[in-house]
């Protein structure tokens, strides 16, 4: 999932939009765990998507600035 999403960030840009979307996915994940009776795997999928979405654009920014990551 991360390599595919990283390619999309490199190809089309819009890093700010992806980073702004990540907290919404974290809130969705925590809300599913706390307030619903859905299977915890559903919340885990949202949490993993949020982690990938949050780290991919930031990793690209750090690698382009010459910082070793």
Explain this structure.
This protein is mainly α and 69 residues long. Helix content is 83%, strand content 0%. It is built from three helices and no strands. The protein has helices spanning 2-12, 15-35, 40-64. Helix 1 crosses helix 3 and helix 2 packs antiparallel against helix 3 (40-64). The model has no long low-confidence stretch (mean pLDDT 80).
Task: Name the overall outline.
Answer: elongated
Pattern of helices and strands: HHH
What is the quaternary state of this protein? single chain
| Portion in beta strands | under 5%
Report the biggest beta sheet as strand number plus sense, adding barrel if it closes: none
Brief overview:
This protein has helices at residues 2-12, 15-35, 40-64.
List the helices and strands and how they pair.
Blueprint lengths: L1 H11 L2 H21 L4 H25 L5
Helix pairs in contact: 1-3, 2-3
Keywords:
single chain, 69 residues, mainly alpha, 3 helices, 83% helix, elongated
